[in-house]
Amino acid sequence: MIKYTNQFLLRMEEMIGESNYTLRYEKGQFKSGYCLLREQNIIIVNKFYSTEGKINALLEILKGIQLDTAKFSEKSKALYEELLTPAQG
């Protein structure tokens, strides 16, 4: 379940940090609120976004990329699977 809190954002940041991608918050004129540099494995999110905006941007990015889960902790693996599993109605 997605919670729009700073704690949930920190969990997402830790999970991405354990992967093959680097997450950065910077200012920029990103129309979508983020920029994804696939060849360099860098995710850049607008630093002026609210916590909810940052979480939504990261969720959108995670739908379009494949993270290397080999170095994930059990906690990060569980979160990654939870985020990628479609909600059951």
Share of residues in helices: 40-55%
Q: How many distinct beta strands?
A: 3
Strand order within the widest beta sheet: 1-3-2
Major sheet characteristics: 3 strands, mixed
Oligomer: single chain
Shape verdict: globular
What separation lies between the terminal Cα atoms?
13 Å
Helices and strands: which structural class? alpha+beta
Poorly predicted sequence stretches spanning 5 or more consecutive residues: none
Write out key terms for the chains shown.
89 residues, alpha+beta, 3-stranded mixed β-sheet, 3 helices, 42% helix
Task: Summarize the structure in words.
- This protein is α+β, with helices and mostly antiparallel strands and 89 residues long.
- The longest helix has 14 residues, at 51-64.
- A 3-stranded mixed sheet has the order 1-3-2.
- The chain contains 3 helices and 3 strands; from the N terminus they run H-E-E-E-H-H.
- Strand 2 (34-37) and strand 3 form a beta hairpin.
- It has a domain at 21-78.
At a glance:
The chain has 89 residues and is of the alpha+beta class. The protein has helices at 6-17, 51-64, 74-84; strands at 22-26, 34-37, 42-46.
How is the secondary structure organized here?
Elements: H1 6-17, E1 22-26, E2 34-37, E3 42-46, H2 51-64, H3 74-84
Parallel strand pairs: 1-3
Antiparallel strand pairs: 2-3
Helix pairs in contact: 1-2, 1-3
